[in-house]
Amino acid sequence: MRSTSTPREDMTPGQPHALGAAEVSRTLATDAEEGLVGDEARRRLARDGPNSIPRAPRRSDLVILATQFRSPLVIILVAAGSVTLALGRLVDTAVIFGVVVLNGIIGFAQERRAERALEALTRLTRTSATVVRDGRSERVPSDDLVRGDIVVLEPGDRVPADLRLCAANELRTDEASLTGESAAVSKRTEATAPGVELADRRSMAYAGTIVVAGRGRGIVTAVGAETEVGGIQGLTASATPLETPLTRQIAAFSRLLGLAILVLAGVTFAVGALRSEPLADTFIAAVALAVGAIPEGLPAAVTISLALGVSRMARRSAIVRRLPAVETLGSTTTIGTDKTGTLTRNEMVVRALVVGGVRRPWPDPDSTTPGATPGAIEVLRAGALANDAEPGADDDGDVGDPTETALFSSARLAGLDPRALRDAAPRRDALHFSSERRLMATSHRTSSRDVETVVVKGAPERVAALCDAELLDDGRTRPLERARVAAIAHALGEDGDRVL
């Protein structure tokens, strides 16, 4: 029997990890097996709104253009241009206003380009989720999720909302986007202490993180702005914009220059008046001196320099929303970081293969047919089969733990297609990796042979303890010498390699 009562309103995103899954289910008036009734899900969606993070109102093109003319130096140029226009000096007026317009166009174009790029990124984050409703699993847009929904998680899924896990089978998630932790986090269903930090809440799966291994099921406890990532977005939106070192320097320089020009023009006019010069001629001379002292090329030079920097950043896939931010990055002298994954791409690469006790670089720079030996092919095939990642059409399409996607990439270098290997030898069962077990095993049955094949990968000493023979490069076998395996693994480890 499924309840359709209203969930308690005191269930806040900070509480579910410390409660049992059954208690969370009762609080949110849902069933961990059957899910919500369809009508109840629609009612909650109408009441709470979609599962999406509210975006700040988009600035109009007119507002973006207007912000380009708030610099003190630009204001001085506009004033100077107005004076020269009033004096009939059309050439000087055209030059000054040309610089102002060029400066505004460049800044406007860059900000609009950044706005469009951010909008594209927002569209990319929209996904779908497998949800259980009325006792049936179905795919729905992530925007339609509500508190109390039961979401099914599989490798490669992006977690669509904050979930209190009620089932976890060797489930691991990549939370780098939320916590900065580069290693995948193992999840469990047991409640955690109320006061633990977010990164230690193993009973929760958070919106925006990626499932890299295992499977699970969770109860939606927070959606949209109530999620942890929604809270970060809210803090970002409410942050007070800070001036960059460059904008502070230009503002200070503009104020000093403006004051100096006014004083100089005033002195010039006063001297002319004391010498009984015609007041009209004296005033024109003072204005001409003021206009000549204004560096009208400075705003354009600064803007063009920053635009070139932004263009270089864009070629490296970095979006810079406002031009002065480039100079801020350039003026940075020290960056403090505590995690490898913060500054790297969080990717792994296979550097070497060891077959029959012989180590070869991978890919082999001296071979025109890398991986052609039977022994190497079997190693690469095993890495693609005993693997919880989801293969894509190429390296960019693979989804999963960086170590496991690296095994797909290494197989492709030898001409193997990970997806075709899986189709030819479908997985029947799996023993997923855990820190206690230190290995992973999968069983497969091929259509060409009526025999079950078990593929194992893991720590060298754990796998070697299960074996009595090793495969040579030419496909033959010989008795395994575990001491030699341990020595090779130790040597690779000393080079800083992770050894499987």
Which key features would you list for this structure?
14 strands; disordered N terminus; seven-stranded antiparallel beta sheet; 500 residues; 17 helices
Please write out the topology.
Blueprint: H1 21-27, H2 38-48, H3 61-67, H4 72-86, H5 90-124, E1 128-133, E2 136-141, E3 150-153, E4 162-174, H6 176-179, E5 185-186, E6 204-205, E7 210-222, H7 228-238, H8 245-274, H9 279-293, H10 297-315, H11 324-330, H12 340-343, E8 352-355, E9 358-361, H13 374-385, H14 402-413, H15 418-424, E10 427-431, E11 439-445, E12 452-458, H16 460-464, E13 469-471, E14 477-479, H17 482-494
Antiparallel strand pairs: 1-2, 1-3, 3-7, 4-5, 4-6, 4-7, 8-9, 10-11, 11-12, 13-14
Taking the alpha carbons of the first and last residues, their distance comes to: 48 Å
Q: What's the story with the biggest beta sheet?
A: 7 strands, antiparallel
- Broad structural category: alpha+beta
Percent strand: 15-25%
Helix content: 40-55%
- Mean pLDDT, nearest integer? 81
Shape: elongated
Count of discrete alpha- or pi-helical segments spanning 4 or more residues: 17
Global Rg: 32 Å
Total number of β-strand segments?
Answer: 14
Low-confidence stretches: 1-5, 8-13
Short overview:
The protein is an alpha+beta fold. It is built from 17 helices and 14 strands.
Describe this structure in words.
This protein has 500 residues and is α+β, with helices and mostly antiparallel strands. It has helices at residues 21-27, 38-48, 61-67, 72-86, 90-124, 176-179, 228-238, 245-274, 279-293, 297-315, 324-330, 340-343, 374-385, 402-413, 418-424, 460-464, 482-494, and strands at residues 128-133, 136-141, 150-153, 162-174, 185-186, 204-205, 210-222, 352-355, 358-361, 427-431, 439-445, 452-458, 469-471, 477-479. The strands form 4 sheets. Strands 1, 2, 3, 4, 5, 6 and 7 form a 7-stranded antiparallel beta sheet that branches. A 3-stranded antiparallel beta sheet has the order 10-11-12. A hairpin with a 2-residue loop joins strand 1 and strand 2 (136-141). Helix 4 packs antiparallel against helix 5 (90-124). The longest helix is centred in the first third of the chain and has 35 residues, at 90-124. The chain is elongated, with a radius of gyration of 32 Å. The two termini are 48 Å apart.
